[in-house]
Amino acid sequence: MNLKKSQIIDLLPHREPMLLIDELINIKKLHSATAIVNVRKDSFYVQGHFPDQPVMPGVLIVEAFGQAAAALTASGIDKKEYENKLVFLMSVEKARFRNPVIPNCKLELNIEAIRSHGRVWKYKGEAFVEGKKMADAQWSATIVDRK
Q: Which residues, in sequence order, are bridge partners of residue 117?
């Protein structure tokens, strides 16, 4: 199963410019997926980070990991169970930024759900550009009621 951006919009509350993931592919229900982030030279964060040598901020790579995990989880659970819910990031562990992500590339985020306990989920992920590892992290998130 694969999800295009329009389907991701149906699952997540994020909207432009904060919706970072463009596709979710290779989905194994509630287990793993690959998110695609098309890092463009006109992406909102490129203008000022840094004008002479633009790079995608590491914090936005972590945000993209979180969005990918939320989409993976939302796509795998009963729609009625996820209706009127949000996924909030709880913690980020072991985040490493190995190489700068520069504009005009396709960032691939391989994510995996490590475990879940009730509404709390733990994930891990690795980010690649053309097979080169750019970052990796582990994080936890929780599903909460939308107010």
A: 120
Is pLDDT of 34 > 90? yes
Instruction: Please tell me the distance from the alpha carbon of residue 20 to that of residue 35, in angstroms, as a whole number.
Output: 10
Active-site residue flag, 31: no
User: What is the number of structural domains in the chain?
Assistant: 1
Q: Which is it for the CA torsion 46, 47, 49, 50, positive or negative?
A: positive
- Give the side-chain half-sphere CA count within 13 A for 146: 9
Residue 52's domain is classified under what CATH number? Answer: 3.10.129.10
**In the chain, helix, strand, coil percent, each to 5?**
20, 45, 35
pTM higher than 0.85, yes or no?
A: yes
Tell me which residue of 99, 28, 34 sits closest to 64, measured CA to CA.
Answer: 34
Q: Which of 14, 31, 49, 117 is catalytic?
A: 49
